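pasting for the record
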Amino acid sequence: MTLLDGTGQTSIIRGVFWFPGTTPSTELSPLLTAMILRLSAGLAAVVCVSMISCVPYNESPKKKVTKTADKTAPLPPEQQKLKDQEEAKKKAEADLKKQEETKKPEEQANRTVDPPEPAGKENKRTDYAFANKVPGKEGFVFSPYNNKVVDVRDIPSGTLVQDPTYPAAEKKYFRVP
């Protein structure tokens, strides 16, 4: 391998360093030696860190220490009565729920079911929004859905009209004020 500078005088051949005006030498300069030592020390540190990171880590949770004396210690009579009452209340609630569940199928059998309404028929709505009048323009109102001006001349007050700014599929209605 040959490395030439602008004049073509410097070359490196198989580890032999040759600078202009000198004879070829196999010795390394002190700066190059220091650089190689630093690089090798850095490489060794990286290898050590990567080896340590490969060691498996025990992620199992630590066992909690519990006091067995608290579990076996008898409760005072007042607290024992309260605990027994709470347990009896919970048991009564569970029995009541079971009884309700067994009654539900019987009640459903006795109840009549209304047939569903046809899909084309819609529920009649009675509480439609009123439009707001446009000030200074008779027969024009603001749509309550998008505030666009709608012409309602010759339509009596209180009449239910379809908003013309929406497509017929959306069916937005309002009342004329």
